[in-house]
Amino acid sequence: MKIKDDFSGTPQYFNRAAFDAMSNRYYKRALENLNKAFRIDSNYLETYFNLIMLNTMLKQPYSKDDLAFSKKAMKIVLDSLSLKPGDENYLLLKITLLSNMRKDEEALKEINHAIQILPDNYKFYFLLSSIYKKQNQFEKLILCYKKMIQINFRKKSSLNNSIAGAYMQMNKFDESLQILNQLIQEHPDDNNNLLLSRAQIMMSKKNFDLAKKDIDYIISKDSNNYKYNQILAQYYLNQGNKPLFNFYNNQVINLLNNQCDANNEDTDAIFELASLYMNLHDFQSAEAKYNLILNNFPNNYEALKQKAKIKLNMQLWNDAVSIYDQLEYSYFPEEEFYNNKAIAYIQTGNYSMALEYFNKTIELNPNNKDAIFNRDKLKAEMASRR
User: Fold this and answer.
1) How many other CB atoms are found less than 10 A from the CB of residue 5?
2) What is the pTM of this model?
3) How far are the Cα atoms of 68, 310, 339, 370 from residue 333, in angstroms, in the given order?
């Protein structure tokens, strides 16, 4: 006769909508739903963690706002732990927040303590693997994955695939290849991405004929996958066949443009397309794509950083300074921000500001040889003008 709606106006509802939007790469509407959840209940923990996940997907983690969110979430978690000491879920949340706040050593200490108490807890090892991956500690990462297989054998295939990826990152191609061949044999009907990984290894080992065999197969299965066309373009580039490289590279650009046209919130595709334009030194097209991202997310870290590089390449020094101002305001200090900003200031003739930013760069990293050399050169120039 009637339905009482106790769900659609709740933070749970908007978090579920946000998660669904993220899964389908509608990132702007995901953020809108999370903001609605915050307005309803600023203490609802899931909103914070979905926002952290979204910012990572958008290549804009570790902003000053992100840290403020993490600190607020940490207070809620610690208050909950005081009521439920040793609670597994709150411990997991605490460790996740520590990692997001760049307190990896503290997070590792917490994980190791938790593992002593719960030695077969898969979730703690999953968190441990994410920290090792972030730190590029691939040897430890592989050991962690192997332990996770022992704990949950049903995840053996996906974890072995991750182990193969870690070996690839270490340029241990033979070890990676051995695992991939086994996985391809075990999954003959669902192996396109495995074949893509194997083709990439064969390309690295300069076994181009074997690489081409895998590439031809996956292209025959899905000719509209931009990644498959991308590796085919790389194959022809390695073969010195410039016409076919250009053809398939343009095919990749067309496929990505179609993807972006279908969903202008899909920052994954837009970033990929902008990167392609950057590699082609088509800075105008690259900037247009970064602007698409900035229209939806005005303080996006990666888009701003790449756009600043474009301005430097185009010798638009004041524009570069403005973008670095924005990065400096929204994010924590980085050598690259300061050093590049100093170089731009030199070109505008503002030597005092250039000197200030070279000094800031060296404060962050006293071993930055480029900044030291440029600062000394600038000082000599300023002295000669007196």
Assistant:
1) 8
2) 0.90
3) 16, 20, 11, 17
